[in-house]
Every structure is written in C-alpha cells, then in structure tokens.
C-alpha cells in the first residue's frame, strides 16, 4: 500500500483528520457495520456536504484510514535508522524505534484490532505492514549460524511482533511504550547481532 499525498490546505487536512477520528471513535463504540456517514458527520460536527468534499462514501474513508495507518506503521518502524548503516542490537535502547509509542499514541485506532465488528481485513494489516518492511528493507546479521533473512523467518518475526503488541493493547497498555520497546529489543538480541536498513 502506498500513501498518496494530496495537496490540501492545513484546514482541509484538519477536517479530514477530524472525520477519521470521529469514525474511529464510533467503530470503537458501536462496531463498524453500525456506523453511517450521518453518524460520522454528526460526531465530527460538520455537515454531509463537507464530508462529500473529501470522501465518496463510508468505504472511501475506510480505505484512506487503513492505508494511512499501514503506511505510518511502516514509517515509524524504520525512520530512526540511516540507510545502509549497520546497527548493533546490543547498542539499542528504548529510543531506538517508535513503533510501540506510535501504537500507544494512536490506541483509539489500534483498539479496533480488538473488536469483532471492525474494519474488514484490518486484522491482517499490522503483521503485513511489519512483514513488508522487514522483507523489503531489513537485512539481519544472525547470532550464530542461522538463516534469519528468509521470507519465512521474517513472516514469523512479523506475526510474533504484532501478536505481542496486540496482546499489550488487549491488556489495556499496562506497560509503558518504553518497556514494550525494551522487551522487543531483548527478543531481537536473542537471534540477531545487528541489521541494516536498505
């Protein structure tokens, strides 16, 4: 999924953000299938005409919200690293990457993963975003003589990471994002001495 940037004014960006925030809140409250465009515009305190300036229908705002969060998940998982520079896992700390903080800061959206009546296909997005990033851009230096750069291993890593993050969400984010980041780093250190982002 590629994020397509539109040339919108700050006011238009703010309006769209408010629509998406209202939509997310409503799904959390009553389930995706029970949210209508009328609900969204009433919650966001705009009129239907304003909604239709930016979106064709409920499916359109759904797709944009999913794509935006998919892209941001990938971005926040890699932006602290310089391309081509080897990162030693033993040098990593809680400030080494932002994924847990991003999820915590956007927990209203990530709580949608915990709902049965949620955005269709959403449950696959977090592991898929992590897998795509690992498979396309990360090369690991293994601890010992293991092939940890295969697509199968990276798929395993992606689903394991997503599972731990969603378990954290399901338990009400009791641990701090820094603590969760440290735990993920500890797991990474068990099988990788370092990595490069291409």
TrEMBL record:
Going by the UniProt record, its keywords in alphabetical order are: DNA-binding
Q: Which InterPro entries match?
A: Homeodomain-like_sf (IPR009057), HTH-type_Tx_Regulator (IPR050624), HTH_TetR (IPR001647), TetR_C_Firmicutes (IPR039532)
The record, for PROSITE patterns, names: HTH_TETR_2
UniProt-recorded name of the protein: AcrR family transcriptional regulator
What PANTHER family does this protein map onto?
ACREF/ENVCD OPERON REPRESSOR-RELATED, TETR-FAMILY TRANSCRIPTIONAL REGULATOR
DNA-binding region coordinates = 36-55
Q: Which organism is it from?
A: Planomicrobium stackebrandtii
- In what residue span(s) does the HTH tetR-type domain sit? 13-73
